[in-house]
Amino acid sequence: MQTTWGWLPAIYLFLGGLGAGALMVAAIFEFFGERYQSDFCPTALVGATVPGPLVILGTILLIFDLGAGLREPWRIFYMFTHFSSVMTWGVWLLTFFIPVSLVYGFLEVLDTFPAARDWLRGRRWLHWTKFLWNLPLRRTKRVFAGIGLGLAIGVAIYTGILLSAVGPAIPFWSTPAFPGLHIPLMPFLFLASAFSTGESLTVDLMATLFVDGRIPRGRRVHLIHLAVITAEALLISHLLIHAFGEGGAAAEAARQIALGQHSLVFWVFVILLAIIFPFVGHLYAAGLGRHLKPSGISSGISILFSGLFLRYLILVGGIHAFL
Amino acid sequence: MEISRRRFLGLVAAGAAVAASAPLLKGTLPATASERPKARYALVIDTTKCTGCGACIEACRLRNHLPEGISYIYRIVKGNNREPWFLMIQCQHCANPPCATVCPTNATYRREDGVVLIDERLCVGCKYCMQACPYQARVYDEERGVADKCWLCLPWVLGGGLPACVEACIPGARFFGRADDPNSEVSQLIASGRAQPLHPEFGTDPSILFYVIEAE
Ligand code: SF4
Ligand code: SF4
Fold first, then answer.
1. How does pLDDT run across A155-213, given as a tens digit for each residue?
2. Record: contact A85-B125, CB cut-off 8 A
3. Ligand 2 contact, B127 CB (< 6 A)
4. Among candidate residues A195, A209, A192, A196, the one with its CA nearest the CA of residue A295
5. From CA A240, how far away is CA A230, in angstroms rounded?
6. B125 shares contact with chain A (CB less than 8 Å)
7. In chain B, where are the structural domains located?
8. What does the DSSP 8-state code read for residue B204?
9. Are B190 and B179 a contacting pair, CB within 8 Å?
């Protein structure tokens, strides 16, 4: 196992993925009209408002993880400068994602709670935001949702490319998605996991808690989540099978994860909690058209936890090529 | 621990005694050694002579004022229990260095003479380079929060001296010289084909370190 990057990076990769995934769900609800089936849509509300703070928190953790960047913070600005580095792309993506998602969340709050606008009118010191609430609300919101969706996909994929970009140094991280092609698997896995955690927060948890799981086109929403969970399962199995077949450091990583010292975490917290249990829960929900409280809350929480554990396992599985 | 830039400034003074070309060293290392545009260094390690004693590890630690237990060189034991042999690993000064590609701040760069350096004034300590180096040649300077690694004792070399590891090697398993001079010992070792880069399949094109490996 490797220790250069451990829990802290796992947490900020998770927060980045969760924020990106939640915004993707909200934007999809926005574009396909589910948002407007009722006045109060907790999925879109949480999916729009939460990503900004989550990603800000993740970015703060990232900065805390920097050695010299924490002591001499101006050095962080150098991180914008080297475009061959995937980390530089990430810093730019976060720089755009955070304000866009904050504005999107702000507009969604104004749309959901008309009283918020009156409250704002009464606050002199907030009048500088006037230009935002005077625009045609829904059309502006839609623009920000669209930009946010693109950036969210970028953020989710970036967390995977960050790992795969180390190339031959860490064979487990650079496992190809398709045999023979130089397309890495990690970005797809991180995108799927981001979407799954985003959906578990906004749909499984929020919609279940606040509107009793009654979301428009619930059956389809749960089928989509089912497909994403299946994709995750296929990607994880492909990752491990390929790593075992490749031998060397990749096989050692796969061995530690599936059979060795991390196997308990892997089988319980990832396979059982992220795959099998939510799969059954969503199958049930897809049949019913909505989550019942127990299945919604339990699969929501288990997917969130397992998203964090999955990232942790992938990070500690980053064993360097044997020399 | 006082190393790198401060260390370097100290070295300029110390090196002046050894070095005729001390004026070269103007406070920070020049990005290119314009005075010697064609200099290409090579370090060959003959694993058939290396006894794995670790004198190079210790010499490197002392010259670079590294804390106990940290060195730019580490040892891998190969072979079997009865006939072990040793690979001493340090930065290979790759011509195509992945550490520099992934560095978000441009702190890691490659000089024209092939030496890969870290400008620690730029480094944020993200450790991405430590992940991307397939030779695991980088260490992390906990005290100052920056990445660190073998710099080929460049100030000594530019001043006509030798890297500490080469000076310290007891069985004489380390050869250092200029690869652009066909008469040098290292050039001849490389030309003979006995000295090869380590793991060329990584695609990083190690351009300074070569190993003579005849065991296994
Ligand atoms: S050996 Fe590692 S640290 Fe040195 S140049 Fe190559 S990739 Fe960079
Ligand atoms: S630790 Fe420093 S040298 Fe290494 S990649 Fe980060 S900024 Fe660059």
1. 999 989 999 999 899 999 999 988 778 899 999 999 999 999 999 999 988 888 888 77
2. no
3. yes
4. A209
5. 16
6. yes
7. 41-212
8. -
9. yes
List residues bridging with B76 in a β-sheet.
B87
Atom of ligand 2 nearest to the CA of B132: 5
ipTM of the complex: 0.90
- Tell me the C-alpha distance between A183 and A113, whole Å: 45
Domain boundaries, chain A: 7-316
B42: three-class secondary structure by DSSP: strand
CB distance A54 to A227 below 8 Å: no
Contact by Cβ (8 Å): A56, B73: no
3-state SS, residue B14? helix
Please tell me the CATH code under which domain A7-316 is placed.
1.20.1630.10
Q: How far apart are CA A155 and CA A248, in angstroms?
A: 31
Which residue is it, tokens 């005077």? A134
**Residue A65's closest chain B neighbor by CA?**
B126
HEC string of A55-88?
HHHHHHHHHHHCCHHHHCHHHHHHHHCCCCCHHH
For A79, the closest of B105, B121, B203 (CB atoms) is B105
DSSP A203: I
The listed CATH number (2.60.20.10, 3.30.70.20, 2.10.260.10, 3.40.309.10) that belongs to domain B41-212:
3.30.70.20
Instruction: Extract the tokens encoding B6.
Output: 């401060």
B119 to chain A, any CB pair closer than 8 A? The answer is no
pLDDT tens-digit series, residues A11-42: 999 999 999 999 999 999 999 888 888 888 98
Global pTM value: 0.89
CA dihedral A88, A89, A95, A96 (to 10 degrees): 160
Residues A19 and A151: their CA atoms lie apart, in Å, by 11
Closest Cα partner for B46 from B175, B173, B169, B196? B173
What's the distance, Cα to Cα, between the start and end of chain B in Å?
40
Residue of A nearest to B109 (CA): A82
